[in-house]
Design brief:
single chain, alpha/beta, Rossmann fold, GMP Synthetase, Chain A, domain 3, 9-stranded mixed beta sheet, 5-stranded parallel beta sheet, binds ligand J2J, AMP-dep_synth/lig_dom, AMP-bd_C, (2,3-dihydroxybenzoyl)adenylate synthase
Length: about 525
């Protein structure tokens, strides 16, 4: 596929020879007993046989529309059975889903459709707060808009799931199976191509590490489109090991706890703000959540003191996960001593993951010192999709991905995340590219210059503060006005600043860059 950077041949040979890569495809992950419940969504319960059939029929429906191997389809769906069916249908015919988040709006979706040259865009009719996705779809240039619900002028998803036809087209293991979204550090979002074989390895190795089996009942509270909930081990890891996936619309205890009680959920993946809510909610909720065995926490740093509370308060094990959609996953192990589980963000999943911790000149730091984490391995990308200039900066010449995370490694191999070098805000696990937000702010008529930084927050980890230099003879916009402005530009709401500060000029570094550290320090 043009725009995809493959692994060099020597690595390909090695990963196959050493058994990391197989010929198994993403479309073949449904490996449970045909009569076992695979998916629970609201009142709907589907066995492995049901889900397999629905996925096949929907695959045939996409194929009838002329969508097939090598095509891209942007999907923007909440945590519904339709997400799972559409995902499986597309990977079966070798059309790669581009996984947008439900919060994305015209700005992000328009760009994703354009960059991926998507043949179709799949949406629900309505979303949170009654948001009408069909309105968004009218702004997008794609051949087919497919709607789960009332389609208006578009194609109903139900019309795809019509006949039993064999799916003729199948992808190859080395094909791109799915595109994940990068958290982003630049003006425009980046797409992460994940091949069938690297993502299958990702989800199978994760499921093994986490001890998933047919008795696993996994609750999805993060967006299903997020790498963590999808494949670490996530929905796909459950399917590959024959367990049951339960979809929750959100991580709110009001929605999640009754599902845990009703379905006897055993495992869940959460970001720290959700884990904190749960720790708190136990004292006032009536639900019986004693079936829970394991809470995975990742996406942002989970404080050691909080991790230590999980077994006491929720009466289950905790696992820290330091992952990235680009690939590398670090997990604390289920049998790690409690100090490592509480104080570290885990160690790499695979024996074939290569890790370097380097200083500003790219030299390895002394063992135990803090530096930037570089990595390559059998499930870490070698380049973003169609982004040669950015790739030249994001990868070393020998193919290590520069994570932008500052870490220190213990003799056991476990990593502790100490900070970040990349220009990104991590707002409770939601990633915001400072440059992307600054570019939107600069389009405002009163804003002369903008610099976005993270500010510490006890629940979210960080919130977003935008420092603004206002144009002479204009009135500084209020936070409310800035949010309305960003909304009209079609920016996802999680990227909106939480606070504005106006300044006359920005402090500068010796090389003339905005001194963001000084700006952030001025907030405390
Ligand atoms: C500190 N920072 C963390 C952690 C991610 C599992 C879990 C998370 C993600 C994810 C994921 C962190 N402590 N425990 O895809 O499969 C920050 C780092 C990292 C970035 C990646 C998964 N866990 N982070 O969060 O692509 O800065 O993936 O580089 O959204 O989140 O973000 P993302």
């Amino acid at each position: 596929m043009e725009g995809f950077v493959p692994w060099p041949e020597e690595f390909e040979k090695r990963y196959i020879a050493e058994g990391y890569w197989s010929d198994r495809l993403l479309g073949g992950v449904l490996r449970g007993d045909p009569d076992h419940v695979a998916l629970v969504a609201g009142e709907e319960r589907m066995t492995y046989a049901d889900l397999d059939r629905r996925a096949d029929r929907t695959a045939a429906g996409f194929h009838r529309l002329g969508i097939g191997r090598g095509d891209r389809v942007v999907i923007q769906m909440p945590n519904t059975a339709s997400f799972v069916i559409v995902f499986l249908a597309l990977v079966r015919i070798g059309a790669a889903p581009v996984l947008a988040l439900p919060a994305h709006r015209e700005s992000e979706i328009g760009y994703l459709c354009e960059l991926s040259e998507a043949k179709a865009y799949v949406i629900p009719e309505k979303g949170d707060g009654g948001f009408d996705y069909r309105t968004l779809a009218r702004t997008v240039q794609v051949e087919h808009v497919i709607v789960d619900g009332d389609p208006q002028e578009f194609t109903p998803l139900s019309s795809l799931d019509a006949d039993d036809e064999p799916t003729l087209e199948r992808p190859a293991p080395e094909d791109v199976g799915v595109f994940l979204l990068s958290g982003g550090t630049t003006g425009l979002p980046k797409l992460i191509p994940r091949t069938h074989r690297d993502y299958v390895y990702n989800l199978e190795a994760s499921a093994e590490l986490c001890g998933f089996n047919a008795d696993t009942v996994y609750l999805v509270v993060l967006p299903a489109a997020h790498n963590f909930a999808l494949a670490c081990p996530g929905i796909l890891g459950v399917f590959a090991t024959g367990g049951t996936v339960v979809l929750s619309p959100s991580g709110s205890p009001d929605e999640a706890f009754p599902l845990i009680e009703r379905e006897k959920v055993t495992v869940c993946a959460a970001v720290p703000p959700i884990a904190l809510l749960w720790l708190d909610a136990v004292s006032w909720s009536d639900e019986d959540i004693s079936s829970l065995r394991l809470l995975q926490v990742g996406g942002a740093k989970f404080a050691a003191e909080r991790a230590a509370q999980v077994p006491e308060v929720l009466n289950c094990s905790v696992q820290q996960v330091f992952g990235m959609a680009e690939g590398l996953l670090n997990y604390t192990r289920l049998d790690d001593p409690s100090d490592l589980v509480e104080q570290t963000q885990g160690r790499p999943l695979s024996p074939a993951d290569e890790i370097r911790v380097v200083d500003e000149d790219g030299n390895d730091v002394a063992p135990g010192e803090v530096g930037e984490l570089l990595t390559r391995g059998p499930y870490t990308l070698r380049g973003y999709y169609r982004a040669p200039e950015h790739n030249a900066r994001s990868f070393t010449p020998d193919g290590f991905y520069r994570t932008g995370d500052l870490v220190r490694q213990l003799p056991s191999g476990h990593l502790i995340v100490e900070g970040r070098e990349k220009d990104q805000i991590n707002r409770g696990g939601d990633k915001i590219s400072a440059e992307e937000l600054e570019n939107h702010l600069l389009a405002h008529p009163s804003i002369h210059d903008a610099a976005v930084v993270g500010m510490p927050d006890p629940v979210m980890g960080e919130r977003t503060c935008a420092f603004l230099v206002i144009r002479p003879d204009t009135t500084p916009p209020t936070l409310r006005e800035v949010k309305d402005f960003l909304r009209t530009r079609g920016v996802a709401a999680y990227k909106f600043p939480d606070r504005l500060e106006t300044v006359d000029t920005f402090p500068r570094t010796p090389v003339g860059k905005i001194a963001k550290k000084a700006l952030a320090a001025s907030l405390s």
